[in-house]
Design a protein that fits this description.
The complex is a heterodimer of chains A (about 300) and B (about 375).
Chain A (H helix, E strand, L loop, with lengths): L6 H37 L13 E4 L2 E4 L4 H8 L1 H34 L5 H9 L6 H12 L4 H8 L13 H24 L4 H9 L4 H12 L1 H16 L3 H6 L7 H11 L3 H34 L1
Helix pairs in contact in A: 1-13, 3-7, 3-10, 7-10, 8-9, 12-13
Chain B lengths: L7 H15 L10 E7 L7 H9 L2 E7 L2 H10 L6 E2 L3 H9 L3 E2 L14 H8 L9 E13 H8 L9 H4 L1 H7 L4 E3 L3 H11 L9 H14 L5 E2 L4 H7 L4 E5 H14 L5 E3 L7 E7 L1 E2 L5 H11 L2 H11 L14 H4 L8 H6 L8 H16 L2
Parallel strand pairs in B: 1-2, 1-3, 6-7, 6-8
Antiparallel strand pairs in B: 4-11, 5-8, 5-9, 5-10
Helix pairs in contact in B: 9-10, 10-17, 11-12
The chains are: A mainly alpha (about 300), B alpha/beta (about 375).
Chain lengths: ~300, ~375
């Protein structure tokens, strides 16, 4: 067979394979690695006027010197603003992920268990909000939650409350906006996972005497673990760095890393500090994820033996 | 598994070559295009259209609402803009950092229309007036809903208007009808510093702590931080006191009058003074259409065109001969065209260094978040 393969065929074959395998790498290098290293470089650069940066490496008169300043990273730990902000961002992202999970799981389960004929309609309904700009949808919550908004007006007119409930520009409005925006990212992977599950496993559990809750907890949940993890990551990671929703719906006392980045970048005109904050955030998210992934693959390995 | 597939370097090389070939060579003649980046709510209704009609130059007009955003774009470079409008104290940092292009004064004969006193003031930021020419100017001050404020404090306005926002005794009473502040340390601190008797652009970090301590006492009463949305909230009645720009407050007053909603909005001219700002036209160093930008600057400096700006957005301009084109009610508005006596009390802006800027931002964050 190899005798029949001409040189051209082999070349085409090789390049074809390279294209297929290489595309995701090229994409990752272009849109992730290169920008990340640029940001990393700025974070260790120094500048006097915030406009011109000193070169990291110089080659003068046969002397090669390389300078990297880690002062910005040190500063991150001397001012408690940054650690408090990371903590606060992680807290909001966790709350958001849990809320999305508790609302999204029953939703996805219902979709996966509904008749095959109506599933496409349900799927379309979940993705329907994406047809409107995300900015508009977030801003629309202002009209609902404001002191003179729809909810307060209704409650007032029914005499249920005497003065408007302060909902807008609080942690509450921020969480509502975040959960609303990120819910589809939880539902879709969960649905994709649950829809493939074999219904006979539940029947078997029932036959063996498990209560419906026990069957759900011991069979359905463990089997959908991958969907839960995928959905949680899709919600958690972008929530940590979310900027637009806290700006529109959060109160001035809400500390989020997006706002601190804005201040470093725009108000302080300190690109190095902004970059250091961003790099630290990437590591804050990356390390737990890498550990988690390692643990996951180990677990799968043991289970499959 | 290796990180990169074999022959990866060749794929990268091909990609690099194809990207380079896509880039076009520099253009020789200037096309009839002008890209302008200006503050929001800051131009006459027909200013751009008339310029396009007259010159055949197609104008793209974009907006920003804080100096910080414009500055970051200029620092990043390749903004694509040919004319920008920084405040003078920001322009100083930009021109010293080589981000702006010196003007070719021979192309702007209308420079002769400019008020020499104003140009002298701008000279403190831009020696020899080499880079910037005035767009409009004003003060950072307080705007009030007169009836609501009087009802809330149950008496006459205080002698020093700044007491309304910086004295807990007044601010606590006004919280119920809504207090807003510009969402920028660069605007709030100079006013607060003056109130506590320190130089508005002090170089001494201890002075800023004094202002921050004062601000802390009134934080519970500030209901909104906003740099452009407050115009409509003030006009609509959901705010009764705003720390904002005098022209914006006059825009709010005009909108309230138009809507006939009974809100009587007034821009105050504090007897104790306020901080001035001068917004200026400048050409980024890497502008692609500097010729057209010079034409536009010359056009704006015509008295009738300059008057059109003031008539629409209620800020004073730098062309005295525009006075005869200014509407009577705007010309009579002493919060737009201050009396010489009031003007003497106002403080000109200064540039601050990066350390002070960081300190101000940090204190402002503490102030806003209340921690």
């Amino acid at each position: 067979m190899s005798t029949a393969t001409s040189l051209v065929d082999r070349l085409v074959d090789r390049w074809g394979r390279l294209m297929v395998i290489g595309t995701p790498y090229i994409f990752l290098i272009l849109v992730f690695s290169i920008p990340f290293f640029v940001v990393l470089k700025i974070s260790v650069s120094t500048s006097n006027d915030g406009i011109r940066f000193e070169d990291l490496s110089t080659f003068n008169d046969w002397v090669f010197s390389f300078t990297a300043s880690f002062q910005k990273y040190r500063f991150l730990f001397t001012d408690d603003l940054y650690l408090n902000t990371y903590g606060s961002s992680l807290k909001f992202a966790t709350i958001n992920t849990l809320c999305c999970l508790f609302i999204g799981y029953p939703f996805a389960y219902f979709m996966a268990r509904s008749p095959v004929s109506i599933r496409p309609v349900l799927l379309m309904l979940v993705s329907l909000p994406f047809w409107t700009s995300y900015l508009l949808r977030v801003y629309a919550w202002k009209g609902l939650l404001d002191d003179s908004g729809t909810i307060n007006s209704l409650l007032l007119s029914f005499g249920l409350i005497d003065e408007p409930i302060k909902m807008m520009y609080t942690a509450f409005s921020l969480s509502v906006g975040m959960v609303y925006t990120y819910l589809p990212f939880m539902i879709l992977p969960l649905y994709a996972n649950l829809v493939k599950m074999d219904g006979r496993l539940i029947e078997a559990a029932n036959d063996l005497g498990a209560s419906p809750f026990r069957a759900f907890w011991l069979v359905t949940v463990p089997l959908s673990k991958n969907g839960i993890i995928a959905g949680s990551m899709l919600v958690f990671i972008p929530s940590v760095g979310e900027y637009v929703i806290p700006e529109l719906l959060g109160g001035p006392e809400t500390l989020m890393i997006g706002r601190v980045l804005w201040d470093e970048f725009f108000s302080n005109n300190d690109w190095s500090m902004a970059s250091a904050v961003a790099v630290t955030m990437v590591f804050l998210i990356l390390f737990p994820l890498a550990l988690f992934n390692k643990y996951q693959t180990d677990g799968v390995g043991r289970g499959s033996v | 598994m290796t990180l990169f597939p074999r022959n990866f370097h060749r794929a990268v090389a091909v990609l690099a070559v194809s990207i380079t070939s896509l880039m076009s060579p520099a253009q020789a003649a200037e096309e009839k295009v002008l890209n302008i980046y200006n503050w929001s709510d800051y131009i006459g209704p027909d200013t751009v259209a008339n310029f396009e009609k007259e010159t055949g130059i197609k104008v793209r007009y974009d907006n920003f609402d804080t100096n910080e955003i414009l500055h970051a774009k200029l620092v990043a470079g390749k903004t694509g803009y040919d004319l920008v409008v920084p405040s003078s104290n920001w322009a100083k940092i930009q021109l010293e950092g080589g981000l702006l292009m010196p003007l070719d004064k021979s192309k702007i004969p209308n420079l002769k229309n400019l008020d020499p006193n104003l140009m002298k003031q701008l000279g403190s930021m831009d020696p020899g007036n080499a880079y910037i020419t005035p767009w409009l100017w004003g003060i950072t001050t307080l705007g009030i809903n007169v009836d609501k404020v009087k009802a809330a404090i149950g008496g006459p306005l205080p002698e020093n208007a700044w007491d309304l926002i910086f004295k807990p005794e007044y601010a606590s009473k006004l919280k119920s009808c809504g207090i807003s502040m510009l969402d920028s340390a660069d605007e709030v601190f100079p006013a607060a510093m003056r109130y506590v008797g320190k130089p508005p652009y002090s170089k001494n970090s201890a002075d800023y702590q004094v202002a921050a301590d004062m601000l802390k006492t009134i934080r519970p009463y500030v209901t909104l931080f906003s740099s452009s949305g407050y115009i409509n909230d003030l006009a609509g009645g959901s705010l009764c006191l705003s720390l904002g720009w005098n022209g914006d407050i006059n825009i709010a007053a005009a909108r309230a009058k138009e809507a006939k909603n009974g809100n009587n909005i007034v821009s105050l001219v504090p007897s104790t003074g306020a901080v001035l700002f001068f917004d200026t036209m400048a050409i980024p160093a890497d502008a692609a259409h500097p010729e057209n930008a010079h034409k536009f600057i010359n056009y704006i400096l015509r008295p009738e065109v300059n008057a059109e700006l003031t008539n629409k957005v209620f800020y004073a301009n730098g062309v005295p001969s525009s006075a005869k084109f200014i509407k009577a009610e705007v010309a009579a508005n002493k919060t737009v065209f201050m009396t010489a006596e009031d003007l003497a009390k106002m403080v000109p802006p200064e540039a601050v260094n990066n350390d002070i800027r960081r300190l101000r931002t940090r204190l402002f964050t503490t102030f806003k978040t209340g921690r």
